[in-house]
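[Automated response] Your request has been received and processed.

Submitted sequence:
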Amino acid sequence: MRGGGVLVSLGGDIAVAGEAPHTGWVVQAADGSDAAASGDGESIAIRAGGVATSSTTVRAWKRGGVAVHHIVDPATGLPARGPWRTVSVVAADCLDANIAATAAIVRGEAALQWLDRLCLPSRLVSHDGEVVRTGGWPAPSH
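Generated structure:
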């Protein structure tokens, strides 16, 4: 008898449990959860754990003519002003992935060494669109 597996996706956070498909669960990395699925997009396959993406572009608005977003730097009480607009992280579970992705936005440039030291596969996108991979995040196959 074969067991079942599940993938649950809620707005950029993904958790998987049970037996994964033979090739793993294929997940597309994007700046926002509203991005259309595309054969041209960057994808990874996961077999266990979770993936989360934090972004400064999805929950963003203007206040007094100044662009702000929902990720607050606890040191300043203001929206984080680091180099990353989006960070995606794979971890042992979805909660850990979400914590690391959000912390990476706040940590800024220091997030690269931090994520690598924690061996958390991560994809960071700068405000100008440059993609940086660390911790074993696979390079795109196309």
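Summary generated for your ticket: The chain has a mean pLDDT of 88. The radius of gyration is 16 Å.
If you did not submit this request, please reply to this message.
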